[in-house]
Write a structure and sequence with these properties.
Layout lengths: L8 E8 L6 H17 L4 E3 L27 H13 L2 E11 L2 E9 L5 E6 L5 E2 L2 E2 L13 E4 L2 E5 L8 H9 L4 E5 L3 E2 L4 H22 L2 E5 L2 E4 L2 E4 L3 E3 L5 E4 L6 E8 L1 H9 L24
Parallel strand pairs: 1-2, 2-3, 9-10, 10-12
Antiparallel strand pairs: 1-17, 3-4, 4-5, 6-7, 8-9, 11-14, 12-15, 13-14, 15-16
């Protein structure tokens, strides 16, 4: 049953960790970290993107397809058990094997009784140096939406999705109170100033989604170095005013647990009624790749 938006505070846990080359080690260690988050007060726990392996799309190799798993599979089995034991909701990112030769970058939402509520499949798939995701993942085909959990209505978007206001808006319009962004992003540049500007942009765009939609936003990132990429951590929870409620360090494994007061959503939306004032009659151009003709 979804939580009421009035007077309810929800503990949110973000598990920021590194990945080893061993999927079983990553699974066991992340289950333990999620359990620690639950026992520190988290009721909804989100993991980082592709938590069960290193970020393999930094290169193109068919051997990495062996890392994929089905849904249900090892991740959902382990975290369903944990969710039921600790009475928590868990957002579990997986390298989904949908069929032979068909794979997605996905996230499963598991309710506090261990039930699988559904799967989000990453919609925006990058193809850049060290982020060769189009080689591995088909784009999502389930659109944007939210899941009714025991502690509120949860929407999930994944990494590259975080740069698109349309994705955040449509997820919020489905009733999401929380937007979670499992992520694996880091510095590829040796220029410290450029790297810091990139990190700030990453945080700013997600905080802007919180403001524009009047929701809580949780971004969960990796830490550590893999190949030429140093993941920048900084997992954070933002409130609906865009304020950073809690943030992890840039360079170490850390569990962030913070409180989200659902009443703030209503307060913010009363003061900033962006949803009320949307000109839905004037947004037809958003369905086009580019507006070639001047208006």
């Amino acid at each position: 049953m979804a939580a009421s938006s009035m007077g309810q505070k929800i503990g949110v846990g973000l598990v920021q960790t590194h990945a080893s080359p061993d999927p079983e080690d990553n699974l066991k260690r992340t289950v333990d970290l999620a359990r620690r988050a639950a026992r520190s007060g988290a009721q909804i726990v989100c993991l980082q993107e592709l938590y069960r392996s290193e970020y393999f799309p930094r290169e193109q190799s068919p051997r990495h397809f062996s890392l994929a798993e089905t849904i249900p599979g090892p991740s959902t089995e382990a975290f369903s058990k944990l969710a039921a034991e600790e009475r928590i909701v868990v957002v579990v990112p997986v390298f989904e094997k949908r069929a032979t030769g068909l794979y997605h970058n996905s996230a499963v939402v598991i309710d506090a009784d261990g039930k699988l509520l559904g799967t989000y499949r990453k919609m925006h798939i990058p193809d850049d140096p060290a982020f060769y995701e189009k080689y591995y993942f088909a784009p999502g085909d389930r659109g944007f939406g939210a899941f009714d959990t025991h502690y509120g209505r949860v929407g999930v978007l994944i990494c590259w999705d975080q740069w698109y206001p349309e994705a955040a808006r449509l997820t919020a319009l489905s009733g999401a109170q929380f937007l979670f962004y499992p992520t694996a992003i880091g510095f590829g540049s040796a220029d410290a100033d450029v790297a810091d500007v990139q990190r700030q942009a990453w945080e700013t765009i997600q905080r802007s989604h919180a403001i524009a939609n009047g929701v809580f936003v949780g971004a969960v990132n990796s830490v550590g170095r893999e190949g030429q990429t140093t993941f920048w951590g900084n997992s954070f929870l933002s409130g609906p005013f865009g304020e950073v409620i809690a943030k992890a360090a840039i360079d170490k494994e850390q569990i962030v647990v913070a409180q989200a007061d659902l009443a703030e959503i209503e307060t913010v939306r009363h003061g900033w009624p962006f949803l009320r004032d949307r000109r839905i009659d004037a947004y037809g151009g958003l369905s086009k790749r580019f507006l070639d003709e001047a208006h």
